[in-house]
Every structure is written in C-alpha cells, then in structure tokens.
Hints:
Blueprint: H1 5-10, H2 16-37, H3 49-73, H4 82-104, H5 112-138, H6 144-158, H7 167-195, H8 202-209, H9 233-263, H10 269-279, H11 282-292, H12 299-321, H13 334-357
Helix pairs in contact: 2-4, 2-5, 3-4, 3-5, 3-6, 4-5, 5-6, 5-7, 7-9, 7-10, 7-11, 9-11, 9-12, 9-13, 10-12, 11-12, 12-13
Amino acid sequence: MASAAAPAAADSTLPPALEQLRHLAGELRFLLPGVRVGEARETTKEFDRETFWRRFREAALAVSRAATTLTEVFSRLPLPSPQETQKFSEQVHASIKAIIAVYYSLPKDQGITLRKLVRSATLDIVDGMAQLVEVLYITPTQSPENLISYNSVWEACQQVPRIPRDNKAAALSVLTKSVDLVKDAHEEMEQAVEECDPYYGLLSDIEEDNSDNHSDEEDILGCPSNRDSYWSEEDQELIIPCLALVRASKACLKKIRLSVAENGKKDQVAQLDDIVDISDEISPSVDDLALSIYPPVCHPTVRINCAKLVSVLKKALEITKASHVTPQPEDSWIPLLINAVDHCMNRIKELTQHEVEL
C-alpha cells in the first residue's frame, strides 16, 4: 500500500489539487490508530439497536458516494480547481469521521465480539478510502489502480449490511469461520498423508523443469533437499494421532458452535465473548501443529505443539461447559471429547518419549 509521506518527498511540485489530496490522505491515515484502539463513547442514553444499524448503513452509503464522486472527478482532465478539490476533500473527510463516530456509539455491553466485527468493517472502509486518495494523487486520471482502489472502498461499504446484528449472531459468525479454517487444515493434512508425500506435486514439477541445470545431488532452490522431503516410518506413525487430534479439534468447534446456536442467549454477551475468545485460539494452534509435521519432522516440537493445542481445546470445552450454552453439563458431549483429546495426547507422548529423553 502506498505511503502518504513517501510520494510527497519524492515529488515536491505536485499541482495544488493533488497536494490537497496528499494532505487528505495523511489526515485519513491519522484516524486509523484511534479506530484500532478506541473505546466506546460513554453515554447515558439507552442503546437503540435499530437506530445504530440504520445510522451505520447510512454512513457507509455516504462514504461510498463520496468515493464515487472523488474517483470520477480525478479520473479525467482537467483536474478540479483547488476550490472544488477542497469541497470534495471535506465531503470525504466528513463521511469518514461520521462512520467512525457511529462505530464509537456501539457500547461494549453489546458484546466485544460484535464490536470487533464492526471495528473491522470500519477499519476496512477508512483504510480503503485512504488508499483510494493516495492512488488518486499519485496516478491521477484514468488508471487501473484507480478502479481497483475504488472497488475496495465500495466493497467494504457493501459489507456493512451483512454484519451480524447482535453478539450471538457475531459469535456464530466467528465460530463458523474457525470451523472452516480447521476443516481446511485437516483436509490438507489428510491429502498429504494419503499421497505419502508432503510436497506432492511441488518437487516433481520443479525437478522436471530444472533437470537440465541440476545434478541429482543438488538441492532445488526454495525446496527441501531430498533427504528432508519425505516422512520416515516413525514420522508416519506419529502423524496418525496428530491427525486424530486435529479431527477432534474440528469436532470441538462444531459442537461449541452448535451449542451456541441452539442454547445461546443474546443477553449473555460476556459468556459468549469468553467462548469466542478461547475458541479463536484453536485454529492458529492447529496451524502450528500442521506446520510441524512437515519434514524434516522434529518430534519434540510436534509434541509441544500438540500439548499447546490440547490445552486450548480443554480450556474451550471447560468454558463452554460452565456457560449457559450447556444446560446439562454432566450429561453433555464435553467429557467424551476431553477423553478423545487425552487419548490422542497420550499416544503422541508414547511415540515421542524416546526423543524427549535424549
């Protein structure tokens, strides 16, 4: 992404209209840190959900219109006069300030998960507009970059009506994304195991293309050497419980999501936030484990990553069990999943114990 300061240093003779855009881009960039860390505005007024979402949609529409106008006038010659540019800049700045103000009006008691989604949408809009302004003063008149940047702003504004309207819906949205990420990681691991080749298709294609330039002993730049390209028998044995653990991770997330969908209450925002926060750690932990099983495999590292994943899974299950989404924790599915996770971890410990003791 272009920097607002760098182009100005490179060219100090910008036409007045473009210099005004450069200044506007800097002002928009200056607003971003505040949105990232800003807290909700304190107010004594009762929160009106319908009013908030109406204002947020209207603010996004205003930003989209301002972006359209700015792109149109700076995509043709002659460029606007300084007076006209000032008017357009003020419209853009006002529309961005307005949508930020709407975001700040969303109280924390409506749910941290919901606020994060609204904040992310707001950041996408502000950042997209800043990038559009930067592109317009760097490459004015018709340019593919202009259209690409404008489309980014337009798409970010279009996402606003699709944001979940309450914290339960927001929690389900985030949990669904986590389920999909873990599902993808599991499928990739399974495919690699089925092919018995972690770099299936990669090494063979590059080796064929470079056969005239490399000897059999030479390593291919950017790829593992032949001795590090395949799993040993010990590696393959260890991967089996690792796959089972990732499968259990996927099952945990799906059951947590189902419990939130069936039993979650919109007014229990704190408990829903706690469930989402810990569940959000599962996918990155699965990724760490998945990366560690690619050769050359370090068995102690695999064991450590498995232990970290198990810790996150158990914490997620315990938090879910203690919450309102599990009405009958003693008869729930949670003990079964904890036993499954423990079984996988015990097997992984057995297979890695020798190397750990070395």
